[in-house]
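Incident log, structure service

09:12 report received: a user says their structure output differs between two submissions of the same chain.
09:20 pulled the input from the user's history:
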Amino acid sequence: MIIESGLVKAGLVKTGLVRAISNINTRYFRRNEGTTDYISHSAATVDRIVMDVYPSAGNVGLPTGAPAVTNNVLQTIDFAYAGTISELCKNGASYFAGIMANVKYYLNGTLIRDYPLDDNSDDLRELASGQNGTVINGNASDWGLFQQQATGEWLGQELSLISSTGLLGDDSDPEFAVVAFTADIGTGITYRAGAVFDTYAGTSDAGFTSSLSGMPAAPPFRATLASTGDFIGGEWVTTASGGVSLFGRAASVSSFSSITLKEVLNVA
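09:34 re-ran on a clean worker, output below:
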């Protein structure tokens, strides 16, 4: 239970609320870069593999026999495998790019290996037989904490550097407020951005911009003739690293609040 002493007075929290707080589904996922990093473990003879994958380059680097997968979607694959396996996120000289989780090996119908891959560490627990694994050539930044939403998708931690802006477009044309720097935005990743207009005066467009990352320079990421309280934002898959900003113009002086930017893992 995540309730610190003194945070909530005794008797003011009902059992159901405590249970709801305790059951919030959060976990770490690790994004494999897909160039030199992979997972090593002791060899296992298996005839079936089940795993969750969120690929950004298709089947490259997945175990032999894996079915065709869809990029940028978290999906469970279940397939026959003949022989031994001692590496994940790597198949021969090919490396998997994306996220892998909840890997299970079976032999003759018995679960013999279970790697959650939620460790936030290079040391990876194995739950069925204690045959732990190790991340090779990984980085601490490969791990991210995510929370599952009621609609099934997983949202990462808040990346926005600001929660609101002052007026944009009154001092320069255009005028920008940085939401996230280039170094914080990866390539081939789905992000969800959002903001609300606090004020708008003019006839031109205002809102988000991130042309280097591939964000569309169009609605729903920006709006024209907006009203106070109007929402802008949406999801896009980055084609390159590029900072994210909000902007206003002399012809669309605007201010924003409720600014958010998070990585999102959509599910199949």
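09:41 both user submissions now match this output. Likely a transient worker issue. Closing.
09:42 reviewer note: The two ends are 31 Å apart (CA to CA). The first helix runs from residue 15 to 22.
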